[in-house]
Structure formats: C-alpha cells, structure tokens
Amino acid sequence: MKFKIITLGCKVNIYESEMMKEKLLTNNFIETLDNDADILIINTCSVTNMADAKSRKLIRYHKRENKNAILIVCGCSAQNHKEKLLDLDIDILIGNNEKSKIVDLINNYLKDKEKYVKFYEDRNLEFENMEVDKFSSHTRAFMKIQDGCNNFCAFCIIPYMRGNIRSKDINQAFEEAKKLVENNHKEIVLTGIHTGSYGAGTNYDLVDLLEKLVTIKGLERIRLSSIEITELNDKFLNFLKNNQKLCDHLHIPLQSGSEKILKLMNRKYDKKYFLDKINKIRSIRPSINISTDVIVGFPQESEEDFLECVEFCKKINFAKIHVFPYSKRDGTRAALMEGHLENGIKKQRSRDLIKVSDELEYNYNKSFLNKELEVLIEEIIDNKSIGHTSNYIKVEIDEIIEKNTIVKVKITKIEKDKVFGKLVM
Questions:
Q1: I want to staple 392 with a disulfide (CB 3.0 to 4.6 A). Which of 46, 249, 324, 349 is the partner?
Q2: Strand intervals (E) in 263-315
C-alpha cells in the first residue's frame, strides 16, 4: 500500500513524521509524493490560528480529493480541536501520542475497519520513545530529545497540547545519534518543545548529552533548534567556549523587548538579564549568530511598548528576528486579558519589525564579506549548490558540489537576504 505524509509546523513534527515514514517503509509500505496514496497522514500544527486553519483546510481537501484513502490525522491541532474534527469522517484520529504505533494503528484498521480515536488528557506523560536511523528528507538530521513544556507563557497553547517536560534517555539519544552519523549525517539538530530543559528530573542535563555527542567520530556539527535564555547557565557557556562542534548559532526566543509585555507574557526574565546573558555569549564567541522570536500586538501592547521592543532588538543586534503577530489561543491566560488589538495594528507592527530584521540580517551577513566559511551542501538547484554555514548563513555557490559535503567557501556577494560564495580550492 502507498502512503503520503503531510507535515505542518515545527522541527519536532518533522522528526515525528520522519519516524512514522521510516516505520512504514520498514514494514513494506511504499511512500508516494503523488495523489495516489492509499493512506494519508496529516501531522498538524496549532501554534497559531493560521496553523489551525491550514490544518483543517488540508484535512477537508484530502478527504474530498482522496475519498478511498485511509485518512489519519495527528498532532497539535488534532489535540487542540478534537471535537471539531470528529465530524470530518477521519479514520484514525490521535493527538501527539501513539505516533510511534502508526504501523499497528493502520494494520488494526485494515483488519477491523473500525475508526480509531484516542487522546491523552493527562499532562503527566512518559516520553514516547522514537528513533530515526536516517533522515531521508534532509541532509541535516533532526533528533528529538525532549517533549512537553512547563513554562505556561500567557500566549502559548503548546503546554496543554504536549504535556509536561520529559526527555529521551541519554544513552538512547547517544545511540540514535551514532546511527545517524553511521548513515552519513554530518550535522545533527537537537530538537524538542523545550529543548533546554532536557534531562529535568534525571541526573543528567543538556550539556551532559552534548559532551557525549561530541565524542562521536564523523559528527561534524551539533545544532540546537532553540534554547531559552534562562537555560544558558555557566555549564552551558563553558561548553560553548570549548567545543567548536556546537554550531556558531543560537536561536533564543525573546518574545518581547518591552518590560511590561514580558511580565504580562509570564516570561521568566527581564531585559537586563537577557542583555547580560547575550553579552556573555558574545564574549565567548564574538561573531555568533543569535536569532530570535518576537510576538507583536500582544494584549495591552501600546505604541510605546512596541517601540521599546524595536529599540531593544536593535540593541541586542539579532542576526534575524522571526516575527509573529499575536494569535489568540482559547484556553490561554492571554485570551482572557483586556486590551486585545485590532488585526491592522498587529499587521503593521509585524511589517515594521520585519524591516528591522531584514536590516539586521543584511548587516550580519555583510560582516562576513570576503571571509572564508565552511558550508554544508544541502541541495542542488539550477546547477547551483546551496547550504548553511555553522553560523546558519545560507550560501549559494555557482557550481555543482556533491551534497552532504562540507566545503570551504569565500563569501563574495551579499544581496538583501541572499549570500553568494566561491569555492576555495
């Protein structure tokens, strides 16, 4: 039987879809990218209203266009809106648990033809063991090491969708990483819902895992998908200083540069704490790429609050800002707050901050003009090789280079958000 997986959302979802694909292929199912699938799996996202709407639209479209296919829906939007999905005639409907049982779920359905609906409402969940041997869809391999979140930021629905923080066993993570490297992955991206909390409740932490991973022969780079500023303790900073395998890039969510809005968001730091920690990081690695997430238009955000945020982003001098207009999520603290803003204001502030981000990104990239950097080649498009540096600059090289090789490149030209390089012989 042929299957097709459609994935929305974050790197955790991408990893979990890759895991499902690998399990299906191992059990003699056949992947198809066309519209001839016997089994359709939609792995949904609920981080914003737009993500929810896109998830529902895809479900309806594929139910209409693939009437005879077995339809499986899973992920955060399924968990968040299960009642609304029950009438869409979905064959297998689950949330964020039991994805690792995908083969059994399908086989049981083929045998009994009975619809399956299962959700876990308890936040106190065990880590669902998943493994991927080879990331066939990416040159860089994602490895999920953690799930869940206990932060309960006022704007965020994810702690309710993903449950409590929990981690993959450190030895299992090490063995999975070894297998990925044996299958020729040179870079591994460690991912989770709250990656920096890895190991909470055990006798090890994220740095302990990193120290094990750097010993793997053939692993050239380790990248973190995201980490909170409060988790960059002295132990981590010491590792950052002494281990060049850890990529020269940290994605550290700020969410707001307004002191008032940070408190309303229930973030666990103030601006001084954030700035001091960034300065410590740059004292260790002066040219590190620090990117961030910022939500604009949060309830009660005045024009002065927004301008304070803009100035703070400039002061931090991020290399890139991922800008999100505030999205009301029912069930969160922010949804009940007074002072929700009009969409027009949120959209305008998004545009304004994106302009700032574009300028900061250009200036960061320009600082590497005529310098030599190593690039991991990830794709070939129109006879051009494209890949990322350790500090996450996407570089285009005007010749064909074998994928999954790391080459030395001189940065020759910067055009807006495009960076061009020439192979150093």
A1: 249
A2: 289-296
